[in-house]
Design a protein that fits this description.
This is Protein kinase domain-containing protein. The protein is α+β, with helices and mostly antiparallel strands. Helices cover 53% and strands 9% of the residues. It has helices at residues 8-29, 63-91, 98-124, 127-131, 135-156, 171-187, 214-221, 226-247, 286-292, 300-303, 316-329, 342-350, 357-362, 367-376, 387-395, and strands at 2-3, 6-7, 34-38, 41-45, 49-51, 55-57, 193-195, 202-204, 249-250, 259-261, 269-271, 278-279.
Length: 400
């Protein structure tokens, strides 16, 4: 929920800070900390003036009075700083999360200084002054309380998020990614999610599967029997074809850590983590996906793509091929080039200085996998094998 383009809780923090500042000005500047009537004549006094009934500046204040004045002035300055920084954070420098802590620190500091001044006044002032305190004394206490509430509101407001697609990012990008996230979540009819009240963060709840991940299995076995690879791939292809045909989603995030086993028997494998998935045949943030996907999984069309790029299900066969190769040889794609910087590695892939074919031919594997992997790794997406054709070939293969 937003008010004038500002998230609700941010707006509440702003209002509390403004009110606290106004009340504090009235409180520490007014000559109404003390009020008493003598023989029908009103006598009143504050931190700066004494009126009986004419007002005069307080001259030669006692040391405790100077301490109270100093604390209240510092409290006012902290409140003013908090308001200015909060306005900058909400309207000018939205992505500077450090400002949040400046605001919180200033609000807490203001409350501390104000209350120290109040305590000094209550402890050191003459008995007559303490017994006849008036509204200005109460006002500064109220201002301190409002400052604390505003600080707590700012602290607990969930305006931070992780940069990505299952969560969100900061500032103006947040609304863009939130919409992308909700599009993917709704397309797969996923129910166990919740958005916070500011619409800046998505919370995902998933079932815990006791079988661990495909990555765990590979770490314990190094590589898998081709028959087991076939069995897993057929299940995975069922899932990804469903994403393509029924949900209009391109999966993309083909890491072994995203493949989950239902139970310790490890017969049933599931796809998880749609954090880098994108809608098919639709514009998406190519630059973000390019930066977020590991080079070993990034299809050439994304590496070379611009903002007008639209993906189809064939794109997923590149990443699926990378994961299949890892299951068969126990190493990720581009393992031998892992010492390269990411930009250099991407450039070598784009210029075809290195090719997936070098990994296929270096390792012994059934001919079917030589064939399908060669077609998975076609740089030209028009020549690449599709998921349905890949599934059919694997179904018809029998290991001798």
């Amino acid at each position: 929920m937003e008010v004038a383009g500002v998230p609700l809780f941010s707006f509440i923090s702003l209002i509390l800070t403004v009110v606290a500042l106004i009340i504090d000005i009235v409180g520490f500047a007014s000559p109404y900390w003390f009020y008493k009537t003598y023989n029908g004549i009103a006598s009143k006094a504050g931190l700066w003036k004494t009126c009986a009934p004419d007002c005069v500046n307080t001259e030669n204040p006692q040391s405790w009075q100077e301490a109270v004045q100093a604390m209240e002035v510092l409290g006012f300055i902290c409140l003013l700083v908090a308001l200015v920084v909060l306005i900058l954070k909400l309207f000018v420098m939205k992505d500077k999360q450090m400002l949040k802590w400046v605001v919180i620190g200033s609000l807490v500091g203001a409350a501390i200084f104000i209350l120290i001044g109040v305590c000094i006044y209550g402890g050191e002032a003459e008995k007559e002054l303490k017994e006849n305190i008036h509204f200005a004394f109460a006002f500064v206490i109220i201002a301190a309380i409002l400052a604390i509430i505003a600080a707590l509101d700012e602290h607990y407001r969930r305006d931070h998020a992780k940069y990505g697609e299952t969560m969100t990012t900061f500032g103006d990008y947040g609304n863009v990614y939130m919409m992308d996230d909700l599009t993917v979540i709704k397309k797969v009819k996923f129910q166990n999610y919740d958005c916070d009240i500011d619409n800046t963060e998505i919370h995902i709840c998933t079932t815990f599967f006791r079988g661990g991940t495909l990555e765990d299995l590979l770490q314990s076995r190094m590589l898998l029997n081709p028959v087991i690879v076939q069995e897993y791939l057929l299940q995975i292809l069922d899932a990804v074809i469903y994403l393509h045909d029924k949900c209009g989603i391109i999966y993309l995030y083909w890491t072994t850590s995203n493949m989950l086993f239902l139970d310790p028997v490890r017969k049933h494998i599931l796809i998880s983590n749609l954090s880098l998935s994108v809608p098919s045949n639709t514009d998406f943030d190519v630059g973000y996906i390019k930066q977020s996907l590991p080079p070993c999984l990034t299809p050439p069309e994304i590496m070379n793509g611009d903002d007008s790029l639209k993906l189809t299900g064939v794109t997923d066969c590149w990443g699926l091929g990378c994961m299949t190769l890892e299951m068969l040889i126990g190493k990720q794609m581009w393992y031998n080039e892992r010492h390269y910087q990411k930009t250099k590695l991407i450039e070598k892939i784009k210029t075809k200085d290195i090719s997936p074919q070098q990994y296929i031919h270096k390792h012994r594997m059934p001919e079917i996998f030589h064939s399908v992997l060669t077609r998975c790794f076609e740089f030209d997406v028009r020549n690449r094998i599709g998921c349905e054709e890949l599934q059919n070939q694997l179904k018809n293969w029998k290991y001798n």
